[in-house]
Amino acid sequence: MIRAYRFVLRPTVRQAQALRDMLRDHCSLYNAAVQERRDAWRHASKTTVRYGDQSAQLKDIRAFDAERQGRWSFSSQQATLRRLDKAFAAFFRRVKAGGTPGYPRFKGAGHFDTVVFPKDGDGCRWDSTPHDRQVRVRLQGVGHIRVHQHRPVKGRVKTISVKREGKRWYVVLACDGVPAEPLPATDSIVGIDMGTVHFFTDSNGNHVENPRFLEQAAEALADAQRALDAFPQRTRRRTKKHRAAARRVARLHAKIRRQRLDHHHKAANALVREHDVIGHERLNTAGMTKTPAPKPDPEQPGSFLPNGAAAKAGLNRSILDAGWGLFLGILAQKAESAARRVIPVDARNTSRTCPECGHVAKENRVTQAKFACVSCGFTENADVVGALNVQHRAGLVLCDAA
């Protein structure tokens, strides 16, 4: 089993500066590689530059600029070029599929925040043996950095990543061969129905409230964003006050992200401890949060009819604030570790199907919260009905597998 561990780094002042220099130089390498690909396509008869071509130039680049590029790990620089190659591969895949391509862009200093070391021992070393009661990680060009290790690392460390979030630095260890830790069997199967009023409702009728972290911080976030936008364009990133305003916005977003992660981990843990099998709807969050297409007015060229975009924007914001995709990913990882099973099922008509008689009709859903079957008269909370149908479909999957 593969698992990632993330720990806070405690660098010294000198080490923090070296880490910033490492990010800056890898960002410079990334942007130079983007420029080379663009120039080759535009000015060299649409020549395509690939990862192998750019990786072969690294030796000469490191020799020419030994002070900046030569001091860092060769493998980490290859990983940066591989990251760009994946971005271009995804771009061409979207072009072939007829989607919105999204050409890979240059990275600003504030948007390049991760350096990856593909192999433990090659430019980096995870030292799990405490020195003076401190665990350390060694990075080429930086030194041995203290790590705040709050839990043991299991399995074999494969890759090491260094990530910056605001003023904090983290190390992320990707490990394989992590042993599973099965929990005692409960002989329980449950279905959950994700929502925005309630974060989710299970088939036993329990509601988990939606914390709405973004909504709670909306006023403070709006104030911070207004203060940041008040700076004229010509003075941005040039004054101490502007940098402080940008850090304030980043801190608020980071806090919301940490709160959401904490909530999702706790909710997933509770489900995994109590149930052997957990069914959930197979949700396409990207499609659900898509902006409505404009409706041209046939009678007035250049004008558009109302398309409900304002109401849809509010719903989209609520869905993204809930973080369904993040939660389901965490749930799947925890279930795998505990030898539980998570079953995604078809989400169609889960809130319109009567769990008693099986009658399907949109009239069954009286309101957002009320379900009343027009065939047999069964009434229940609509979210509970959705969870019951998810549980039933997950049970059918289990029977087919058996």
Question: Could you characterize what this model shows?
Answer:
The chain has helices at residues 13-43, 51-56, 58-64, 74-97, 213-216, 218-229, 240-274, 285-288, 309-322, 324-337, 382-401; strands spanning 3-10, 114-117, 124-131, 134-139, 143-148, 156-165, 168-176, 189-194, 198-202, 207-209, 277-281, 295-296, 304-305, 341-345, 370-372, 379-381. The chain has eleven helices and 16 strands. By secondary structure, it is an alpha+beta fold. The two termini are 24 Å apart. It folds into two domains: 3-176, no CATH class; 189-401, no CATH class. Strand 8 and strand 9 form a beta hairpin. Helix 1 (13-43) packs across helix 4 (74-97), helix 6 (218-229) runs antiparallel to helix 7 (240-274) and helix 7 (240-274) packs across helix 10.
